[in-house]
Amino acid sequence: MSEANLTTMGGSHVMGAHAAGALEESPYRMPSKKLVMWLFIMSDAVTFAALLFAYGYLRNATPGWPRPFHFSPTVINAMVMTFVLVTSGFTMLIAMRAANLGNKAGALRWTFITVVAGIIFALLHIREWIGLIGEGLRLFQNPWGSGLFGAAFFTITGLHLSHVVGGVIALTVVALGYQRGRYDAGHIEIWGLYWHFVDIVWMFVVPFVYLLNIAH
Amino acid sequence: MNTGGHNRDEMSQDLSGSVAKNFVIYVCMLIIAGLQFVVAYQHIDSSQMFLRMFLLAIVEAGLAVMFFMHMWMERRNFFVTVAVGLIFVLTMMNMIWSDSFRLLRFQLLK
Asked: In chain B, where are the structural domains located?
């Protein structure tokens, strides 16, 4: 059978199927880029959950798990970091709102305030790491007990810190692109979702990694 | 939560709406975060402390997901997809605990 006959016989059916596919609504009636961000967030949530479960496993199965954190400086530092990160979530929300209203200046201002908050968080985190390293905490040894503590602590807080730094870079790039007209309010919104996710992860890292390891 | 129809306009309205509601959510999140620090200094056993902190973290994260990430404005089937998938995976991860306790007992017998 010739190609022409095939087209004649099945052409309308094939065309119809393609047209239906092209006109099909996007899944969940949200833009593809936002859906992709949600999928990334889901997979990243599982990654962090796996790390926290692994940490819980080690902590539970290791007698003499260290509890090295004192009110000053670690707990105070964790309080300030939590305040900064939750506040940055709120400022990101205001940036998303301003972008949606078409208030470009407001969106940029609040996005950069969020970026500054992210930088402050990262600096506080690095300062804390330097302090703990100064006290003798290493990846596989520390002066307080099980050597696994350092591996668990640095892995979990390090992965979170890398997400914060990544978010700071991404928000800066998107804000500058938004200023130049390369990106729109939708881009601010999806990176806002990412920033809120980073905020949510911290809500679990603080109690499990810091507060359950306070020296009494 | 939206069961159908286009919700983009509603979401735009919410994003464009007053910040007052979101400020209240923000303050609630700060209070819950503060409560976690209070729980950390209570004289209770570790399992109770873990449970209280975990519940507070769940509530705090729930507020952030529903209001800051606008999950409550998304279609219900999207919420179900995300929630069922995540809850299933996180529940399956709990299989590790029996082995964790076995290791602990094994060490105690030494």
From this structure: 1-74, 76-110
The string of pLDDT tens digits covering residues A18-72 is 555 566 777 788 898 999 999 999 999 999 999 999 999 999 888 889 999 999 9
Q: What is the pLDDT of residues A175-189, one digit of tens each?
A: 999 999 999 999 999
Q: What is the CATH number of the domain that holds A51?
A: 1.20.120.80
Closest CA to A78 of A129, A119, A112: A129
Do A211 and B108 make contact, defined as CB atoms within 8 angstroms? no
Query: Residue A152 falls within a domain, yes or no?
Result: yes
CB contact under 8 A, B61 and A96: no
Q: How many residues does chain A have?
A: 216
Distance from the Cα of A18 to chain B's closest Cα (Å) equals 24
Q: What is the CA radius of gyration of chain B?
A: 19
- Residue A13 in any domain: the answer is no
**Closest approach of A101 to chain B, Cα-based (Å):** 6
Whether the bond between A73 and the residue before it is cis, its omega within 30 degrees of 0, is yes
- Cβ of A61 within 8 Å of Cβ of B104? The answer is yes
Question: How many domains does the structure of chain A reveal?
Answer: 1
